[in-house]
Write a structure and sequence with these properties.
Number of domains: 3
Largest sheet: 4 strands, antiparallel
Number of helices: 19
Number of strands: 4
Strand order of the largest sheet: 1-4-2-3
CATH superfamily of the largest domain: Clc chloride channel
CATH class of the largest domain: Mainly Alpha
Radius of gyration: 23 Å
Length: 521
């Protein structure tokens, strides 16, 4: 035990050397993650190209070809069911699992999860299920980060930084969005603008993006063309768009949890759970192929095709319901990209209405599609900064940052006033509740936790000895800017202090809550 504690304290031996090591390890993680995600994206793009050709061939061949295809989907359902049964941590998005690991509430075996997530994601999304590649990409990157840490025998404290860096690299590589990958880690995963997290994550995200750009080019993921800059007199409409899309996003979380609960309460088990959405996908391929897969090509088509108002409503309703049906089955696949597609459809519908009443010039239609994506993301994930930067990078709309922030904050406020929870937090809480019902034991591990004292929090202005620390925890260091303080009981903490606590990993959430929650006494 003493050797483990000394290894964990390696952070404070020479901080500059430790930051340099994190940067170099982040670069290695970025290169490895970029390679994995490039293969993942490449296989999904092949499936996107093959799928319409396959449906055309089946339509020409007739009944027996269709019967053979549905027999193939049955076999695919068996494989997906077995993957989730063998490795439950590969199911769903992967982002709630990473949050759970960082909170010390979940553990994963990186090699098993990486293999199952990669294979399951390719099969599920490639078959046309309405799931995204970003959640799996985040988890694949996290597996790479954890794998490097385990192979190099790093401390559990350092493993958290490397796992976070891999997660950011996965998102950056999935969407050619390095800045969004970094901000996502800071705003959503750790909720902590730590220099140590930043050092590793920036290196990993930039290198991972460079690797995928070598494979796919540097063009944005969505092809929006040259967008005109929104004039200030239309910003009132932007706020209305944020309110409209925010209301649309309110139902997303509830429907997602409802779908998961209905699947769990149904008699469907094993291969039967993915079989239902796979068969629905097989039928939709002949009648409404636009809503199959993640949906990035549907977003591109909104720019080039003048869909009617009724058909846009059909696409919105169809994509929404099909996404719920697919995600509820528990197969590997995310909701990130389907969320953006729903936001784009909401923006297109809003633009149609604005055009009908003569409120906007047709040249601004695509702008509203772009802003709708940012608004929906902000409403569902409740990370408006990440959403704004992500959409800016994914569409190449670098001159629209002010408009993206405005519409994202408007949508965020709608969800916040309705007391909506961030989708990944809600999914994590559900998973932890199931884990408790199954009474799964989590091994306690000692780890150094880094927390930032929030302004107005319980820790702000409090003496160390006066705070309720978890049992068996030890404050090992306090940093205030570039200064380091001896963490004795008489030290008064202040907002912005970085506090390093050696504790059991299951106590991470309690320590973070104490550093962030507002003092009401």
């Amino acid at each position: 035990m003493r050797s483990k504690i000394l290894k964990a304290m390696d952070i404070f031996a020479d901080e500059r050397y430790f930051r340099l090591r994190l940067f170099l390890e982040g670069m290695l993680i970025g290169a490895m993650t970029g390679t994995v995600i490039a293969a993942f994206r490449g296989l999904l793009e092949v499936s996107e190209n093959i799928r319409p050709l396959l449906y055309n061939w089946i339509a020409e061949q007739g009944f027996w070809a269709a019967a053979g295809y549905f027999l193939f989907l049955t076999g695919l359902a068996w494989v997906l069911g077995r993957l989730v049964q063998i490795e439950p941590m590969c199911s769903g998005s992967g982002i709630p699992q990473i949050k759970g690991i960082l909170l010390g509430r979940m553990h994963m075996e990186w090699a098993r999860v990486l293999t199952a997530k990669f294979l399951g994601g390719v099969l599920a999304i490639g078959a046309g299920m309405s799931l995204g590649r970003e959640g799996p990409s985040v988890q694949l990157g996290a597996c790479v980060g954890q794998g490097l840490s385990r192979i190099a025998r790093r401390s559990r404290a350092e493993e958290r930084f490397l796992l976070t860096a891999g997660s950011g690299a996965g998102l950056a590589a999935a969407f050619n969005a390095p800045l969004a990958g970094v901000i996502f880690c800071l705003e959503e995963l750790t909720k902590n603008f730590s220099p140590l997290v930043l050092m590793a994550t920036i290196a990993a995200a930039v290198i991972a993006t460079a690797v995928t750009q070598l494979a796919f080019g540097g063009a944005p993921v969505f092809h929006m063309g040259q967008l005109p800059v929104m004039p200030m007199q239309l910003y009132g409409l932007l706020l209305l768009l944020g309110l409209f899309v925010g209301l649309l996003g309110l139902g997303f979380n509830r429907a997602l949890l409802f779908s998961l609960d209905r699947y769990d309460q149904s008699p469907l088990r094993g291969m039967a759970k993915p079989l239902l959405p796979l068969f629905v996908a097989g039928g939709l391929g002949f009648v409404l192929p636009e809503i199959l897969g993640g949906g990035n090509r549907l977003v591109d088509s909104l720019v080039t095709t003048d869909y009617g108002f009724v058909f846009l409503l059909l696409l919105l309703l169809g994509k929404f319901c099909f996404t719920m049906l697919c995600f509820g089955s528990g197969v590997p696949g995310g909701i990130f990209l389907p969320m953006l597609v729903l936001g784009a459809l909401g923006g297109a519908i809003f633009a149609k209405g604005a055009l009908l009443f003569g409120l906007i010039d047709p040249a601004y239609t695509v702008d509203f599609i772009v802003f709708g994506m940012a608004a929906y993301f902000a409403a569902v994930v409740k990370s408006p900064i990440t959403g704004s930067i992500l959409i800016m990078e994914m569409t190449g709309s670098f001159q629209h940052m002010l408009a993206l922030i405005c519409v994202s904050m408007a949508a965020y406020l709608v969800t916040d006033m309705a007391r909506g929870k961030p989708v990944y937090d809600a999914l994590l809480e559900r998973s932890l509740a199931i884990q408790r019902r199954l009474q799964r034991a989590i091994r306690r591990r000692r780890v150094v936790v880094e927390v930032v004292v929030g302004a107005g929090s319980v820790m702000d202005g409090a003496f160390i000895h006066a705070l309720a620390w978890p049992k068996h925890s030890l404050i090992v260091d306090v940093r205030r800017g570039e200064e380091e303080y001896v963490p004795d009981g008489a030290l008064r903490l202040a907002a912005g202090d970085y506090v390093y606590v050696l504790a059991n990993d299951v106590d991470i959430a309690a320590i973070q809550q104490q550093a962030a929650e507002h003092f009401t006494g």
